[in-house]
């Protein structure tokens, strides 16, 4: 009965716009991936951390990540073209003794050891898929297809999003409904799973590629697709994801406030 962590760090960080991979971007002098790995190890509940790194780009990761943190071995594996493929690559190298897996994003560098323990404990207590989540504070609307001002032509961008029509008019989306935010949660990582269930979920989704794979942004979604139950436990503000330069500034602020 052992718990291992797969720490995803193989993304490029396009939206952050740094020179290299996002996971190597420093926060208070330490790369995001090291912050995340340290906190996983400090939880005391994981026996190993497998870090997915950009294929062919292992060297800088090997130089910032020690082979062991708090006595917990840290291994690097080459990730894949999508986050899902990277997690699958991490799962593939876990030993047969591992029966619980925590999947965590290096981009959520400040998720604390207490959150890691809480998620792991819930899985050990018998819930086979557990994710941390926070209530949503914005007012949320469901919208329809984007439209441009009358007299111009609707044009859709490559990613399916709107771009201005020929006259340069900004797009607008018709509101279909106001969503009851009371029943929504913004989910985070680490996400914890019974290992056999997560293996099955990844095997069932392994054929997905391109946009379909990109659209699956978390592992719980794969488990849901199997029809299995997923549970939410309280998340943490500091488990926020660093996606943009603004998020990095927020993470810096959280550290300055003493949120170690
Ligand atoms: N990730 C990964 N392998 C990929 C893509 C993403 O391991 N092929 C990891 C990232 O390193 C990150 C986590 O998945 O820790 C969440 O992804 P995201 O925040 O989208 O990071 P990036 O894909 O790097 O950023 P962007 O989408 O802006 O390029
Ligand atoms: Mg991404």
From TrEMBL:
Its EC number is 2.7.7.60. Transmembrane segments: none annotated. Signal peptide: none annotated. Pfam families: IspD. It is an enzyme of class 2 (transferase). The record marks 181, 241 as: Positions MEP for the nucleophilic attack. Catalyzes the formation of 4-diphosphocytidyl-2-C-methyl-D-erythritol from CTP and 2-C-methyl-D-erythritol 4-phosphate (MEP). This is 2-C-methyl-D-erythritol 4-phosphate cytidylyltransferase. It comes from Cellulomonas marina.
């Amino acid at each position: 009965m052992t718990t291992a962590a797969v720490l995803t760090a193989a993304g490029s960080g396009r939206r952050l716009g740094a020179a290299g991979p996002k996971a190597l971007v420093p926060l208070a002098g330490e790369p995001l991936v090291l912050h995340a790995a340290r906190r996983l190890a400090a939880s005391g509940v994981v026996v190993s951390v497998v870090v997915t790194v950009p294929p062919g780009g292992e060297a800088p990761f090997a130089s910032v990540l020690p082979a062991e943190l708090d006595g917990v071995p840290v291994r690097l594996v080459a990730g894949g073209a999508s986050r899902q493929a990277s997690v699958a690559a991490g799962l593939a190298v876990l030993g047969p003794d591992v029966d619980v897996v925590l999947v965590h994003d290096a981009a959520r560098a400040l998720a604390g050891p207490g959150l890691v323990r809480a998620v792991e404990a819930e899985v050990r207590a018998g819930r086979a898929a557990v994710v941390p989540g926070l209530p949503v504070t914005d007012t949320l609307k469901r919208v329809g297809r984007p439209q441009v001002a009358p007299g111009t032509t609707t044009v859709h961008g490559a990613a399916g999003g709107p771009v201005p029509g020929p006259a340069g008019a900004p797009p607008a989306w018709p509101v279909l409904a106001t969503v009851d935010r009371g029943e929504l949660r913004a989910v985070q990582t680490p996400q914890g799973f019974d290992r056999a269930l997560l293996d099955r979920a990844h095997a069932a989704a392994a054929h997905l590629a391109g946009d379909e794979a990109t659209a699956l942004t978390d592992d719980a979604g794969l488990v849901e697709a199997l029809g299995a139950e997923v549970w939410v436990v309280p998340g943490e503000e500091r488990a926020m994801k660093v996606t943009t330069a603004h998020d990095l500034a927020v993470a810096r602020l959280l550290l300055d406030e003493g949120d170690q």
